């Protein structure tokens, strides 16, 4: 560990910094210790410092997919600000090497403006580059596993930088090894993607197809604008003037079921007075993906549902929002209520998407 890296970390170290302003929910208590990280070496220094102090560690990106406890986080929060974007062209493709702290949608806008295909359906997703591999970020028929080549990460237990290929990441639907068996082992510092120069747009998601209508040849910019429009209608694009966007985006993962489970659910729906066609989409391994938003509404929790100072968005039942003065406790209670209602109605256990920070006893 170089002296300059230690100095870089120590100069940025602060105490009792409120975390709510760093989150899209606008909820959460303070971090006992907080530092902004602008290099991999400073990251390693911060991790080592936390280990020496016997403190828990949390790495903060764009704050778009986390719920911070009301009491805050009683350890060290490292805000990832490693930037830089490098490109290289070869055989009709462009390799993009981006720092983990780069704004994701700014990167998407850059690729679309240059007519590099591969990110267009991922427009409007808040957060940073380093978060995209963790849950295999995806939307409207595209996901990160299609374009990621490799990534650089700090192996926390070993204190060494390593490179992992896409195959090493164990990507699944909204999942990867970073969310499962290696949940706290790696901190991603850079990500390398491979996109197609002047490639065709990916228009395969039914909602996106309907929105675009009968366009013969759809440009990447048209796809981006359509995705942004769809997301705005659901308050899934961050807008300070729209309270419905004060959320983590989709709070629950769309569940997947076997064909046998799907048929059983359809039969049970026949007994519901409000029974209608169950939205369903093909998923990997022969499974069927269901709409979590549809399940939530059919279980009796509609758009605009109010629970104290929080609730569901008036535009989309899948988003839990901070109405005014909401708390993390209220968010957690509403989450559990929704999960219970959906399980009682359909026998399906909804899995939350965001990371819960500081809730450990």
Element layout with pairings:
Blueprint: H1 3-12, E1 14-18, E2 30-37, H2 40-52, E3 57-60, E4 66-68, E5 73-80, E6 85-90, E7 93-99, H3 104-113, E8 116-117, E9 138-139, E10 142-143, E11 148-155, E12 160-165, E13 186-197, H4 206-212, H5 220-233, E14 256-257, H6 259-269, E15 280-282, E16 288-290, H7 292-298, E17 306-307, E18 310-312, E19 320-322, H8 328-346, E20 355-357
Parallel strand pairs: 2-5, 3-5, 4-20
Antiparallel strand pairs: 1-2, 6-7, 7-13, 8-13, 9-10, 11-12, 11-13, 14-16, 15-16, 17-18, 18-19
Verbal overview:
The protein is of the alpha+beta class. The chain has eight helices and 20 strands. The strands form six sheets. Strands 6, 7, 8, 11, 12 and 13 form a six-stranded antiparallel β-sheet that branches. A four-stranded mixed β-sheet has the order 1-2-5-3. 43% of the residues are buried.
Biggest beta-sheet profile: 6 strands, antiparallel
Total of domains: 3
Kindly report the CATH topology of the largest domain.
Uridine Diphospho-n-acetylenolpyruvylglucosamine Reductase, domain 3
The radius of gyration is 21 Å
Per CATH, the architecture of the largest domain is: 2-Layer Sandwich
The chain-level mean pLDDT equals: 93
Q: What's the helix-strand series?
A: HEEHEEEEEHEEEEEEHHEHEEHEEEHE
CATH class of the largest domain: Alpha Beta
Tally of DSSP helical segments? 8
Please mark out the parts with pLDDT under 50 across 5 or more consecutive residues, or reply none: none
- Apparent shape: globular
Strand tally: 20
Q: In percent terms, what proportion of residues is strand?
A: 25-35%
What distance separates the N and C termini?
33 Å
How does the helix and strand content classify structurally? alpha+beta
Helix fraction by DSSP (H/I, runs of at least 4):
25-40%
């Amino acid at each position: 560990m170089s002296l300059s890296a230690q100095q870089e970390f120590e100069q940025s170290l602060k105490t009792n910094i409120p975390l709510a302003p760093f989150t899209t929910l606008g909820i959460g208590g303070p971090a006992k210790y907080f530092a902004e990280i602008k290099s991999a070496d400073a990251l390693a220094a911060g991790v080592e410092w936390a280990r020496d102090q016997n403190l828990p560690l949390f790495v903060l990106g764009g704050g778009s997919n986390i719920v911070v406890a009301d009491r805050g986080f009683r350890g060290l929060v490292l805000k990832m600000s490693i930037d830089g974007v490098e490109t290289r062209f070869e055989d009709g493709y462009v390799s993009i090497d981006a720092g983990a702290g780069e704004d994701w949608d700014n990167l998407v806008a850059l690729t679309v403006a240059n007519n590099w295909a591969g990110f267009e359906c991922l427009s409007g997703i808040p957060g940073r580059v380093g978060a995209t591999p963790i849950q295999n970020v995806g939307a409207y028929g595209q996901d990160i596993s299609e374009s990621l080549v490799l990534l650089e990460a700090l192996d926390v237990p070993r204190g060494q930088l390593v490179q992992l290929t896409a195959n090493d990441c164990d990507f699944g639907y909204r999942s990867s090894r970073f969310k499962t068996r290696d949940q706290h082992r790696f901190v991603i510092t850079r990500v390398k993607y491979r996109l197609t120069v002047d490639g065709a747009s990916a228009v395969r998601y039914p909602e996106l197809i309907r929105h675009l209508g009968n366009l013969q040849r759809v440009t990447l910019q048209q796809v981006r604008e359509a995705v942004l429009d769809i997301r705005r209608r659901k308050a899934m694009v961050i807008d300070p003037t729209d309270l419905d966007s004060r959320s983590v985006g989709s709070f629950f993962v769309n569940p997947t079921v076997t064909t046998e489970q799907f048929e059983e659910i359809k039969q049970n729906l026949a007994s519901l007075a409000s029974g209608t066609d169950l939205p369903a989409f093909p998923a990997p391994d022969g499974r069927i993906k269901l709409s979590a938003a549809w399940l939530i509404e059919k279980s009796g929790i509609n758009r605009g549902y109010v629970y104290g100072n929080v609730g569901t968005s008036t535009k989309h039942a899948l988003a839990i929002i901070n109405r005014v003065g909401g708390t993390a406790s209220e968010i957690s209670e509403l989450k559990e209520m929704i999960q219970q209602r959906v399980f009682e109605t359909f026998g399906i256990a909804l899995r939350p998407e965001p990371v819960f920070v500081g809730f450990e006893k």
